[in-house]
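Chapter summary example.
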Amino acid sequence: MDEVDRKGLSLLRRILKHEKKIFYVLYLIGFSVLIYLLVEVYSLQQQERRLHTEYIIEQESGLRKRLGEAVSRKRELTLALAIASAQSVRVDRRIGKIGLGSSISSVNAISKTFVQKHLLKASSFQIIDRSGINLHRSWSAQKGDDVFATQPWIKQSLKTLQTRQLMDISEKSLVFKVIVPIVHKGKAIGGVEVSTSFDSILTDLNKQDGYDEYLVVAIDQKYKSRLTEVPSNAFINEYFIIDYDSLPQDVMLKVQGNSIDALVDRRYLPGEKHHQILDDYMVVTGKVKAVDFSEMAYLLFFKKMHDIENELLEQLHDSVFMLLMLIFSMLLFLSLALLLRYLSTRLHQDKRVYDGLTELRNKIKLMEILDDKRDDRTLVIANVNNFSNINIVYDFDMGDQILKAIALRLKSICQCVEVFRIDADEFGLLYDDDSSAVEMIKNIQRRFFDQEMRFGKHTINITFTYGAAEGGKHLFRKASFSLRQAKNLGSNRYHVYDPGLDRLDHVERKEFLDMSGILHNALESDKVIPYYQGIRDNRTNVIDKFEVLVRIEHNGEILTPYRFIEVAQTTGMITRITQIMIDKAFSYMRNKPYTFSINITEEDLNKNYLITYIQEKLDLYKITPERVTLEILEGVSSGGNKNHSKQFQIFKKMGLKLAIDDFGAEYSNFERVMDLDADFLKIDAKYIKDIDVNHKSYEITKSIAAFAKNTNIICIAEFVASANIQAIIDEFGIEYSQGYYFSEPKEFIVDRKEKS
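The structure predicted for these 756 residues follows.
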């Protein structure tokens, strides 16, 4: 591996090491961006609202200005018409009275002229004599009324000879009024009153502003007493609606019993009480002189006809829309990130509890299920007989096919809750009742005996050795104990745990509990100790390599793995032990010149922590990966677990060495060794220890050594205990020897040992 690849791999490992942190940092960034976008949307909406408000205020201000101009013009024209009318009245100077016939014609002519010139519409007049009697009304044939009684200001005007302008209230509207005295010889002999409806102002406004042709007027409540008819519930705050029936139906429903604040959309004009919006109506205020010459306030309701056309508003609206789309996208991104995180977690969990070859769940999951300690289950463990021979005869691929076929048949014929692959060639069958385990086993035997398994040209009979237990507590340990008992009876046998007869289990149970306590105490009190056994290089006769072996100190006694390793695996403490061994061995070896090997277990691989943990220790203790060899049991390396294989590949890329430990003990799958790209084969001790007296051990060792040499894999012979054994090792050209003949396991390495 070149330096560039090494640095790239190191960077990748660091990234994977902090994968969770990176995810949460990215999620925090995404969430922060989301908050920023929401704040931006709120800010833009406030700008949009402010511009909208400013536009409405501008529109209302313009309407108010034009309304004021229209009111002033209406008042001036009404005054002009009244003066002109009064001047055109014919006076019979002989008797000092008004000449009615000719006067009516003259005033009508003047009014007509004003209409034709588009100066004033909707005006009316009446002629009054000096005593206040109505002589003529332009809007009615009725005459002869006493005007002074109902309109005292007319009497006051004639008395003082002053022209008066005022605002009066009729049943339906406000009215501009002007009274002009008719004077003869310094005295008033009568007067002309001209009236113009306030509603006529709307005609002028509509010509320019494009509003609906309708207007509703509301005045102060204190003037309601002047109305002859007062509609009920027609108030808006302190204002009284004059022409209530002219309000549109939708506005009428809102006006009744409400105040202007309840009707006006305050969002557009917060804090601006004099600028008011009633749904899609504008409410404009104004003031005119009332009959008592005080100021009368009024409200005008105009229906808005035009949408706001403002380029900046449109840009803001587009910006808000785009930000909302970004927010939606960000929410989608965050949701997908969470989903992927969830799926990744689930996938990781699945890999932990699933067997990659058979797709059955594994021993880890079985132990989780059994942890609920139900007492109505049956567990059968079925071990495939002679599977190591099957692998040797038919090769690894065929072995995999056979295991998958066995898994499928077990699932189809066993009426159990679930089938588990609990070891390379062992299957667990969990039943959800405590019925007869013997009947269950006989059913499996019968179905496999009746149906041979065919693979291409090959026909294979599969048989099992069975261990079973019924009940609930310690079900797995009891079934495992029963399997060992069955194996002692021979192949294709079974044993069902019997609490009355299998008393050895009670002793084992006590020993198990005692050892579990010893392990817990050792972990808490730092009593897990690495021992080092030298491995001799037969080519140089020098010990330059060591295997790190775990020991536990208890009450002054050093315990070997034979005493505690099974308990550690069953209780889940084995991974913690492995971590301690890695840390202590790396710390001890950092200043020493030796290479060394450390044993890792299936449980370590299942928990997926080794890659990150080993890299941390390599970096911490400055140890080059090439000095470290990971020893893996043959049963683990041959299991075909895809997750394990992936980890082995990464170990190799990191620069670590791989050794297959106890090779020949179970499967002797040479093809699998090639697939794993193993650096070392450690020949199982059962062949080495009697190689000088057992011809079978001699031939098997010779075959393994030849295979290793032909594939450029370094071979290590374990359990070398004598000169006779070493002589045969040298004969086979095996590169390394390990055993008490050269080196006993010790807590400290004293120096290099040599032995010819």
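To summarize the output: The longest strand covers residues 542-554.
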